[in-house]
Amino acid sequence: TINTLSGVFNELLSNNDYEVRVNYSYDLNEGLGASAATYEKEITTIKEVPTISVDTTSVTSNSGLVVITSSDNNVTGSIKQIKLYKNDVYLKDVSLVDYNLDSLQSNTTYKVEVIYVYDLNDGTGSHELLSSSTFKTLKETPSISIKEDVTTTKIVVLPEIKDLDSAGSIDKVELLLNNEVIETLNDTFEFDNLLSNTKYVIRLYYNYNLNNGEDTLKVTKEIVTTKKKAPIVDVTLKANKTEVTYDVTYTDIENTF
Q: For the whole model, what pTM was predicted?
């Protein structure tokens, strides 16, 4: 009778020699009792060429991190070199210690190239694997401040914008009085016919994209319109027995009369 006992040895290394031993006992019924024996057979696992892939994460306007994923069941290889290219022109080698990318330019295309060297010890020598990843740094985040030209009845908004990478543009400017929007402008930011000596709020919206999605920067500033000057009045009086004459002079710079 032929019996078969099957099984699997897993998580072995490729391209390695193994020996399978079968320990068994038998009894030929000769009055000698059971006998012990061992069967041995050698086998070599199939060669497995390593694989490698590279990606770049945690990308900002001036930095990034190289992430390398490799499958080397034989543990026969190592990373030989990491090259950094800027707009397809070789720039420098990346540290093999921490894989950090720093001092990058914003809004610029880079490529990381990884060279992996391995040897299967099969007499064919060493081999190289090449993997690369292309990424673009984020644009520099814009910064905005509000300057203004103010009179008694007018506010002219003068945005001061620092947007080195042209990441966005002004969407709108709102004028608020007592926490309510009373006017919205989209191009010429001049608010007229206002109350004098009154506190208004300017709210500016700047839409931008740093290469990672749309976002909005909101800048708010309180502005008080100029107080009007009160008119100056003077009266000159002259009297006789039955009459009083008068001369009234006034100065009204703000045309309040």
A: 0.67
